[in-house]
Design a protein that fits this description.
Radius of gyration of chain A: 18 Å
Oligomer: heterodimer
Shape of chain A: globular
Largest sheet of chain A: 7 strands, antiparallel
Radius of gyration of chain B: 23 Å
Strand order of the largest sheet of chain A: 6-1-2-5-4-3-7
Number of strands of chain B: 15
Strand order of the largest sheet of chain B: 3-2-1-4-15
Mean pLDDT of chain B: 91
Helix content of chain A: 25-40%
Shape of chain B: globular
Number of helices of chain A: 9
Low-confidence stretches of chain A: none
Distance between the termini of chain B: 40 Å
Number of helices of chain B: 19
Largest interface: A-B, 43 and 44 residues
Structural class of chain A: alpha/beta
Low-confidence stretches of chain B: none
Distance between the termini of chain A: 30 Å
Structural class of chain B: alpha/beta
Order of helices and strands of chain A: EEHEEEHEEEHEHEEHEHEEEHEHH
Helix content of chain B: 25-40%
Mean pLDDT of chain A: 93
Strand content of chain A: 25-35%
Chain lengths: 281, 472
């Protein structure tokens, strides 16, 4: 069933966009932590994207993507009023949220959008949510306004120091943990090196750390095992057992390697697509 | 029997693509009988007074009659006879393990080759090819009036659900089939390769159902997008659960998460559902390799091995703990695989996968085995030959050692009782689960089995649903 794009917001022109989609049944069911699987066109590949926000009353969900390969490049060509060929969800286990006190939500890159939905969930449950977000520079920082709307603290780091702390989110996180021993949980979503660094940072403090893993998926409903990850020595399927796991137990090195399994094919496909697009211009 | 004294004529061979050609293409391997060949083969049938073949069929097709019609060249009558009890004959003629069912029971098989019942069933279905869609499913020239308030939902769109949909829609019930993936057909679509079951055959069966006002809702995930409870709130009178045994099993040996080790489900889903055989025309990629290995001895292992060959692997080896004789695959699939150049490494039990520093598979260490006493399955137990191991060079390994129950729907529906292994417990007479008016059948009840057994289960549940709705 095709899914209509109601609104498109270019967050970083040419590389990152937010789509508001008409998906009432998914909006009704979506919980923080859930993801969807979509196929842009008839010959498309299934890819997973985390739900950045859901509005059950309006019947809409939001997704945010970074243009990385062919599928996201093709998605970027769609506009308001266009339709996504296939979309299903909400998939994966919902984030475990309970009232616990102070929760720090760390986000990097497009992971900030996915983290936003979880931060909102913690806020609604009555937790004191501290958001720590990072980007290369000020212009590439996502969801700052959205997070400031409900988070009492939004701490920023940029690689070039154009906004907030100059450096990495982990430095901000470490400082915050040193100052405040009451933090109950740290949630981290972003590139694998960032999540690994966050887990290493929180470990000495003994703070529960949840990461959301973006492994390669085909069906997203437990049928293929492409997304398998090792957590505490056990093999788990990110799609049905996760996507969230204990950050202190995830084998990040294996995850990194597995994410590169189809690199040559992905590159070929994207290059052929770009070439086709140029030919049509 | 007097005819037994005469020499039994061998069965009429099935025309097929030459092995050397087909090993690199995805076109169907077996090409099918012509009318002349079908009549010649059908004429071999003894027309037994008490035909054992019918008893050998899980849905009890009246084989004697349909073969009799074919012997006279009456394709329509043959087709109608099959269709009385089997809703997917074009599929069954291609994928049933006939040698342990109908053909395994054929009297001719005692002294010679049994009647090629599967090939004849396929011929009748293909030849008939939906003169009218209603006729295709109901055997009746006109569609029944669909009663919009008699609503039944099927979750999953594999063989068992399609059977339920066909049976009930032909009796005027409004059936909606909910499929989680983006194409209908279940294992017929994502699992069985097109060189064995062309996708147009599956499409034909699904289109015929649509003609009977069966709604197929894609991308709708039972237990996620909707719950069983909500279906009843929406006015469905009964729900059939046919979600299959889709959770792939791994062996739990070292190195199983190396790049290049795949579940058969992943490998086949990429190629069949994702059309990775036609990459980059289609976006889904498939792993490229030179020396493929496949672990397992069933049909899925054969499908994976033959797919790897077609995708350009230089060498494909099936690694199996027992010997060729114990392999559970259909004889024809094993025979075709060997003809195409697939190699066997029998009496080898995988111990570990070995990789390079980047995390890519390089080889597999196997334990040499010998056959011991028969186990509970009746097959000889493989026993390790202590200290005898071997290394097999391989850059891609497909693990085809079976699957478990898919947890998505059942995890969200605790009212449906499951057994120790996680499969659904049903009333054997009616197919009903512990949840009232919720029925189940196929692999989610039995564990991985065959298309025809799933269809038999669907038929049984559909009969009970029809009875409760008063439309028998």
């Amino acid at each position: 069933m095709p899914t209509k794009i109601l609104k498109k917001r270019k967050l970083i022109p040419g590389t990152t966009s937010e789509l508001t989609l008409d998906a009432p049944q998914i909006a009704k069911k979506a919980q923080p932590g859930n993801f969807i699987i979509l196929r842009v066109s008839e010959n498309g590949e299934r890819i997973p994207l985390t739900i950045a926000d859901a509005d059950p009353e309006a019947g809409t969900i939001k997704i945010v993507y970074l243009v990385l390969g062919k599928t996201t490049a093709e998605l970027e060509t769609l506009d308001e009023g266009d339709e996504i060929h296939d979309l299903c969800g909400p998939l994966g286990k919902a984030t475990h949220i309970e009232k616990e006190g102070t929760v720090i939500c760390v986000g990097g890159g497009t992971g900030i959008a996915a983290m936003h939905h979880i931060a909102k969930g913690h806020h609604k449950a009555g937790n004191h949510v501290v958001a720590i977000i990072g980007a290369r520079n000020k212009d590439l920082l996502l969801f700052y306004d959205e997070l400031t709307a409900f988070c009492p603290e939004v701490l920023v780091s940029t690689d070039d120091g154009s906004f907030g702390h100059k450096g990495f989110v982990t430095e901000v996180l470490k400082k915050r943990l040193e100052e405040d021993k009451t933090v109950k949980e740290v949630v981290a979503i972003g590139p694998v090196p960032m999540m690994r660094a966050v887990a290493l940072t929180t470990e000495p403090f003994g703070v529960k750390t949840t990461v959301s893993l973006n492994s390669i998926m085909v069906d997203g409903i437990g049928m293929c095992g492409a997304c398998r990850v090792t957590v505490g020595g056990e093999v788990k399927f990110a799609c049905v057992d996760g996507p969230e796991f204990d950050g202190h137990k995830v084998d990040f090195a294996e995850l990194s390697a597995r994410l590169g399994a189809y690199k040559p094919q992905e590159k070929d496909s994207h290059e052929q697509y770009k070439c086709r697009c140029q030919c049509h211009e | 029997m007097s005819s037994a004294k005469k020499a039994i004529k061998p069965r009429v061979p099935m025309p097929e693509q030459p092995a050397a050609e087909r090993r690199r293409n995805f076109e169907e391997v077996a090409l099918g009988y012509t009318l002349e060949l079908a009549m010649e083969e059908a004429a071999r049938c003894l027309q037994c007074k008490k035909p054992p073949c019918q008893k050998g069929c899980p849905v009890e097709v009246n084989i004697k009659d349909f073969v009799g019609h074919l012997a006279k060249g009456d394709v329509v009558a043959a087709y109608r006879t099959i269709k009385e009890t089997n809703s997917l004959p074009a599929v069954c003629g291609r994928v049933c393990p006939q040698e342990i069912q109908c053909e395994g029971s054929c009297v001719l098989g005692k002294k010679g080759q049994p009647v090629a019942i599967g090939r004849l069933e396929r011929f009748a279905a293909d030849e008939f090819a939906a003169k009218s869609a209603c006729e295709e499913i109901t055997g009746m020239p006109e569609c029944p009036m669909i009663q919009e308030d008699l609503k039944v939902a099927c979750i999953g769109s594999g063989p068992s659900s399609l059977t339920v949909a066909g049976y009930l829609s032909s009796r005027g019930v409004k059936v909606t089939v909910f499929e989680a993936l983006h194409e209908p057909g279940g294992v017929l679509t994502y699992g069985i390769p097109r060189f064995r079951l062309p996708k147009r055959i599956v499409k034909r069966e699904v289109d015929a159902l649509k003609e009977n006002q069966v709604d197929i809702v894609l991308n709708w995930v039972g237990g996620k997008t909707f719950s069983v409870e909500e279906l009843f709130e929406d006015g469905y009178k009964a729900v059939f659960v046919g979600v299959g045994a889709g959770l792939p099993r791994f062996m739990g040996i070292p190195g199983e998460n190396l790049i290049g080790v795949f579940s058969a489900n992943e490998y086949l889903t990429r190629v069949n559902l994702g059309r990775a055989w036609n990459f980059p025309e289609f976006d889904t990629p498939c792993f490229a390799c030179t020396r493929a290995t496949v672990i397992g001895g069933g049909n899925v292992a054969m499908d994976a091995a033959r797919t790897a060959l077609r995708l350009g692997a230089e060498k494909v080896t099936i690694v199996y703990r027992r010997t060729q004789d114990e392999m559970p695959a259909r004889q024809e699939e094993l025979h075709h695989a060997l003809e195409e150049g697939v190699e066997l490494a029998c009496l080898c039990g995988p111990l570990a996968f070995n990789g390079d520093e980047r995390g890519y598979l390089k080889s597999m260490t196997v334990q040499k085995m010998t056959l011991g006493e028969p186990d509970a399955s009746g097959r000889c137990r493989p026993c390790a030959l202590e200290g005898e191991t071997m290394e097999i060079e391989t850059d891609m390994c497909v693990v085809a050692v079976g699957s478990g129950p898919n947890p998505v729907l059942l995890g969200a529906t605790p009212e449906i009782e499951t057994n120790r292994r996680g499969y659904i417990v049903i009333n054997e007479e009616t197919g009903e689960t512990a949840m009232e008016n919720v029925f189940a059948g196929g692999d989610i009840v039995t564990g991985s089995a065959t298309v025809i057994l799933a269809m038999g289960a669907g038929r049984r549940a559909a009969q009970e649903i029809a009875r409760r709705l008063g439309v028998e």
